[in-house]
Amino acid sequence: MDDDALAEDLRHTIGELVRTVRAVDTMPSGEAAVLGHLDRGGPQTTAELAHRRGVTHQSAAKTVKELLADGLVRTEPHPTDGRKLLVHITDAGRARLGTERNQRSGRLDTAIGEALSPDERRRLRDGVDLLARLNAHLKEK
């Protein structure tokens, strides 16, 4: 298999895996994504969230509004620009995100245990390490 085919197979397989695992989600993917960005990156403006998610400002604002209504995020004035608000994840938001992440991990864990032999699980661990290195390299570019 040449490198182009490998890259396409990897892209396709990872995409399918992510979509399959997300099937257990109990909240819209956009809301989970915003909570994830806030959990990993700290408070952000709606514009920053839109940029990170690759969506319009209006779409991000709608998602933030829904999360606010559910008490999963809160806002406060931006410290250096009074026209902006910073969005913060709340404890309830962290708990909800944790539930989503645990459901995804649990689904993967069950599938790994059922579908793969002990040797294949070791090989998969090596593959995860390779994917992490590949991701780090891509982020440097």
From TrEMBL:
Ranges of residues in domain HTH marR-type: 1-133
SUPFAM superfamilies, per database record: Winged helix' DNA-binding domain
PROSITE patterns: HTH_MARR_1, HTH_MARR_2
Coiled-coil annotated spans: none
Domain of life: Bacteria
Short name of one Pfam family: MarR_2
Alphabetized UniProt keyword annotations: DNA-binding, Transcription, Transcription regulation
The protein's name in its UniProt record: MarR family transcriptional regulator
Organism, scientific name: Streptomyces phaeoluteigriseus
